[in-house]
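fwd from M.: "can u put these together and see what the complex looks like"

so here's what she sent:
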Amino acid sequence: DGGITQSPKYLFRKEGQNVTLSCEQNLNHDAMYWYRQDPGQGLRLIYYSQIVNDFQKGDIAEGYSVSREKKESFPLTVTSAQKNPTAFYLCASSTLDEKLFFGSGTQLSVL
Amino acid sequence: GQSLEQPSEVTAVEGAIVQINCTYQTSGFYGLSWYQQHDGGAPTFLSYNALDGLEETGRFSSFLSRSDSYGYLLLQELQMKDSASYFCAAAPDSNYQLIWGAGTKLIIKP
């Protein structure tokens, strides 16, 4: 079955710690995205990548970093510079058209 | 700035019809998408309108008026499983980096 796998489902971060959220897709999609969702709000774009070894900042990239070394993988690191990291993080992919496919999300909380 | 406005909450009765509106203000416009998200889950794609008019997919339909910067999602024969949040999202350019509305929570009563 094709799809997007995010892990872990729940993640806890200590102050000053960097944490990495995993996102893997086997849909052969070129484009991948990371969104942040806060309660009662829409999705906000953190980073996106349209091709391997290339990525662009979204609206709220500060305190986050990504890599795209393989077409299938687009991990997101939440750095210690992100002072308010508690949120639901969603990874998505698409074939550069209008339809996004989402992973099941990672809930990040601060200890 | 760029924004999409939709009602925060809509309540309807099982078996009824409900319409969720979305108005947008974006620098450019390529199309309007709708996504459904159940609590704690991932958004799933429902529909996309690039041209004016109505698109029908089973019990769900979506409408777009580019001249009015307005669209809506119409859900017919409501079922309890339709209880979810519904998001409209606009593509302001050909890269389809979507701008999202804050979502409409649909509450369905028996």
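replying to her w this: The mean pLDDT of chain B is 93.
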